[in-house]
Amino acid sequence: MANTLRPYLTCVRSTLEAACCLQNFPCQQVERHNKPEVEYKNNPELLLNPVIICRNENEKCLIEGSVNSLRISIKVKQSDELEEILAKKFLHFLALRAEAFQVMRRKPIEGYDISFLVTHAHCESMMKHKLLDFIVTFMEDIDREINELKLSVNTRGRVVAHEFLGSF
Questions:
Q1: At a CB cut-off of 8 Å and minimum separation 6, what does 97 contact?
Q2: Is the N or C terminus of the chain more exposed, i.e. has fewer CB atoms within 10 Å?
Q3: Beta-carbon-side half-sphere exposure of residue 9 (alpha carbons within 13 Å)
Q4: Do residues 140 and 5 make contact, with C-beta atoms less than 8 angstroms apart?
Q5: Residue 90: partners with Cβ closer than 8 Å, 6 or more residues away
Q6: 43 three-state secondary structure
């Protein structure tokens, strides 16, 4: 992990640990339903204040909590046009396979690239610290993966240009 990324991810992890004190709380409007309050926002008294953690203007994390659910929205670094295209395609690929991740939302919150929804049921069926490890590791790996894709595209472009211009 890069030294500049470490304090950002440490702050995200500690905030997630503090916000991930979820409990079973049935819906107050519909009997025998357990809806994530952070998604529906029917009862403002059940919501925590949202927390935004920014590394810079292009990279940030929004953590919204409630009594029974936690929504984590991530904006991935996109410093140039190539990174924007790569991030959009890669995150779309992941969103299409959201059911394999269980906690990933198909459609992110507006202004963010990807979102996770952790409910009380997820915390009961999975180990909470492993779930938080997954989210933080995902944030670390997505940045690395996009940088590797960018390097690969630039290398391929350089080889193609060399072959094309070598004939002149």
A1: none
A2: C
A3: 19
A4: yes
A5: 142, 145, 146, 149
A6: coil
Q: What Cα–Cα distance (Å) separates residue 148 from each residue in 90, 123, 142, 155? A: 12, 33, 10, 10
Would you state the pLDDT for residue 2?
A: 63
| Beta bridge pairs of residue 75 | 60
Q: What number is the average pLDDT over the span 90-104?
A: 91
Q: Is the pTM of this model over 0.85?
A: yes
Taking only Cα atoms into account, the Rg of the chain, rounded to an integer number of angstroms, comes to 19
Q: How far apart are CA 129 and CA 10, in angstroms?
A: 14
Q: What is the pLDDT of residues 47-79, one digit of tens each?
A: 999 999 999 988 999 999 999 999 999 999 899
Sequence-distant (6+) residues with CB within 8 A of 108 are: 73, 91, 95, 114, 115
pLDDT tens digits for range 124-144: 999 999 999 999 999 999 989
Q: Which amino acid is at 11?
A: C
Order of strands, sheet of 114-119, starting from the edge strand that comes earlier in the sequence = 51-56, 59-65, 69-75, 114-119
